[in-house]
TrEMBL record:
Primary location class: mitochondrion
Keyword Transmembrane attributed: yes
Lineage of the organism: Eukaryota, Viridiplantae, Streptophyta, Embryophyta, Tracheophyta
UniProt subcellular location: Mitochondrion membrane
GO cellular component term of the entry, any: mitochondrial membrane
The organism of origin for this protein: Malus domestica
Name of the molecule in the record: HIG1 domain-containing protein
TM region positions: 25-44, 56-77
Keywords: Membrane, Mitochondrion, Transmembrane, Transmembrane helix
Keyword S-adenosyl-L-methionine: no
Pfam families attached to this UniProt entry: HIG_1_N
InterPro entries: Hypoxia_induced_domain (IPR007667), RCF1 (IPR050355)
């Protein structure tokens, strides 16, 4: 019989995730990227290719900023997936 104080090893990752502070700007950046992409596709469909091109370029910039936020927050909080646990 298992003791109540022992934590299931498969759930340890879940508990660590709950403790860690997440960057709220990453989901905002993802939503902004999706919004700019949608607006660009709509403008292409309506025949406004100049606006569509500008929006697609803006999407690349917003998407790059989101990826930079993800990498920066992982570096800041010390999440290195290549580091072996000690």
């Amino acid at each position: 019989m298992e003791k109540m104080s022992e934590v299931d090893p498969t759930l340890e990752v879940f508990y660590e995730e709950k403790k860690r502070v997440r960057n709220p700007w990453v989901p905002v950046g993802a939503m902004l990227t999706a919004g700019v992409l949608t607006a660009g596709l709509i403008s292409f469909r309506q025949g406004n290719s100049q606006l569509g091109q500008k929006l697609m370029r803006a999407r690349v910039v917003v998407q790059g900023a989101t990826v930079a936020l993800m990498v920066g927050s992982a570096y800041y909080y010390g999440d290195n997936p290549w580091k072996k646990p000690s």
